[in-house]
Structure formats: C-alpha cells, structure tokens
Amino acid sequence: MNAAATLVIGATGTTGSRTAAQLVAAGHRVKAASRRATPLPGAQPVRFDWYDPATFADAVSGADRVYLVPPVGDPDPAAVMVPFLRQAREAGVRRAVLLSSSAVPEGGPAVGVVHRALPGLFDQWAVLRPSWFMQNFTGAHLHADSIRGDGVILTAAGSGRVGFVDADDIAAVAVHALTGDRAPDTDLVLTGPETLSHDDVAVILTEVTGRPVLHRHLSHEDMRERLAAMMSPKFVALLAGMDRAIAEGAEDRITDTVERLTGRPPHSFREVARRELTDAR
User: Fold this and answer.
1) Which of 5, 22, 234, 255 has the fewest CB atoms below 10 angstroms from its CB?
2) What CATH number corresponds to the domain at position 170?
C-alpha cells in the first residue's frame, strides 16, 4: 500500500468527493482539499484555493499523486493550474490525474491547455475526458434546478445524443489511474453504456420520479442569453458552443473505457436516476 498520500483537489465536488471516498474505502491515505477544508470521513482535510498560492505548499506536503479538478467557470484555468503543478512536482508529486471533458481536446480551450502541459510536467499522468455527467440532472446543476423547479430541461442541443456518464464511474476510473501499478499516460474518454437525447432523459426522469419532465428546445442565441446573467461572456460562448456541438453529433459515441479499467460495465442513466431520485416519488 502506498505510504504517501493522494491529494484530491475539489474533494467536496461531484467527482472529487466520490474519488476521495473510494480511495479511503480502498485503504489509501487521502488529503481532501477544498476552500473550507471540509472534513470528509477517513480523509485529512486541507484548505486549498486555486487563487491563493499560499495554500499550495500545505496541500502538496506528503502527497505523491494528485487528482485535479479545475477551478469552476474559469475560461483560462492554466494561469493558476500550471504554476501549482510545477510546485507540486518540486514537492514530490509524481503522478497527476486531470479531470477534463470529452468536449475539450488536448490543446483546446480552457482545460485543454492544461491537458497539453501535463505530460511535460509529470512522468505518470492521465487526463479523464468524461462525457456530460448524469448528475447534472440529479444534483447541483442548472439542469437539476430547472427540473426541480419547473419540470423542464432547457438546452440548445436539439435531438443530439450524448453518452452521459455516472460520476461514480468517473471516480472509479480516477482511482484506477491514481493507484494502478502503471499510470495510463494518456487521455481517457469516459461514457455511459448508451447515448441519449435530452428528450430521452426527460422521459426516463418522468418514469422514475412520477413527475412530468419536458425538454424545451432553445435556439443557440436563446441559450447564450440565458447563460449571460450567470457567467462570463467567454464561458457563455464555451458552454453554448458545446450544446451546438451536441446538436451536430459530437457527443454521439460510447467507449469501453469504464469497463476496461474497472472490470465492470458503466451504470445506465435509469440506474442512476433510480439511485439518486427515489425520494422524488
């Protein structure tokens, strides 16, 4: 068992919390990093803020691997992440696993710049590129809020299909990439077992919760206008562009990555909806 700790950045978030919990359950030492150093069962809490370099040294102390969740909503995360990664390497971190997106290639916008830099910083690395999270419809997300409030999903994705993936499955792959004898040293596109349109998602949610859910099709311009009140113009353009890409078929794919790395098939959206929304009945 590895004596050094695994630093999990974003340990209170959707994938970070699950990754930390799975690492602890497997007997690994975990430093759970968040802005408030929130305690997590079995993990050592540590304060960490991407925008406060004074928190970096304590976070990486005693860690030899790190799970990286980029700062949310930042269109240029490399500006804060790359300096941290250099400091982490100098402090003894040898393996880094970065959470990116299936919609962002190496060298692409935002976290794609960090993706490109990672192999030059660490000999052992992986970039997880999951498709859109199933938890976007069940947890803390604009879609989930809209579903709970008005029973609607608002997108400019049209009838485009997506290989939505369970955050538990992302975490399972993250644990493998962090703790396996050999790091993947590549990027990994993660999907669920099937592709679904947002209309399909609405049907499944209606069946599982017993509450009617509809997918309302927005134009690209309407989506940009809706997001404009919530985030920077650059990030609005990025997100609205992703919906347009879905409509054009960019996310209509499935991969075998989850099963190949974890030894079990990925969870379906219906399974996740039943698991996380049973109280909605």
Assistant:
1) 234
2) 3.40.50.720
